[in-house]
Amino acid sequence: MNTIQYTGTVRIAYAGPDLDTVPPEISEYDNDVHLGRLEPPRISTGLSSSAMALWSGSAMPGRQQCSDLISTQAIEQVEVKKGTVVCLRTDAGRIAVLTVTSTSNGFNSGEMAQVTVWSEVSD
After folding, report:
1. Are 44 and 76 in contact (CB under 8 A)?
2. Which helix (H) or strand (E) is 66 found in, with range?
3. CA 63, chain centre distance (Å)
4. What is the pTM of this model?
5. Which long-range contacts (CB under 8 A, 24 or more apart) does 37-42 make?
6. DSSP secondary structure code for residue 90 in this structure
7. In what order do the strands lie in the sheet with 111-121?
8. CA 112 to CA 103: how far, in whole Å?
9. Residue 88's closest CA among 53, 40, 46, 38?
10. Which of 90, 9, 5, 108 is nearest to 45 (CA)?
11. 66 in the Ramachandran plot: left (φ > 0), alpha (ψ -120 to 50) or beta?
12. 17: cis peptide before it, omega within 30°?
């Protein structure tokens, strides 16, 4: 089953979104992805057990494709550019896909992304 829990726009900055809440809440400590203090800008997984992987396919990935990619190619951080697509597993085990829609050099203003979060928790 591929039920979507949330789809919309999120801001990823020093405080990033907790993708397990609807709508995602921005949290400094309980986020699934946040912006690191690096140049060029990079997003990292949250302080929790979240995980992510960079998607390089031409079509948008589905839930299972994202889940498989994270299981085999998880990374700790991704350099962000407009159009970057990242698969993410939240700390509660949900799968999400993020597409960066705009970037800024501001650590607090951060990056904007379109996100889809599926409601099922992975086993």
Report:
1. yes
2. helix 63-73
3. 13
4. 0.91
5. 37/107, 38/77, 40/79, 40/80, 41/79, 41/80, 41/103, 41/105, 41/111, 42/77, 42/78, 42/79, 42/80
6. -
7. 4-12, 111-121, 94-102, 85-89, 51-55
8. 6
9. 53
10. 90
11. alpha
12. no
Token pair listed for 6? 């949330």
How wide is the angle at C-alpha 8 spanned by C-alphas 94 and 41, nearest 5°? 80
What residue ranges of the chain have pLDDT lower than 70?
A: 1, 47-49, 105, 122-123
Q: How many other CB atoms sit within 10 Å of the CB of residue 9?
A: 12
Residues 84-117: pLDDT tens digits?
Answer: 999 999 989 999 999 999 988 677 788 999 999 9
Helix (H, G, I), strand (E, B) or coil at 15: coil
Contact 50, 32 (CB under 8 A): yes
Amino acid, res. 86? V
- Beta carbons of 95 and 55 less than 8 angstroms apart: no
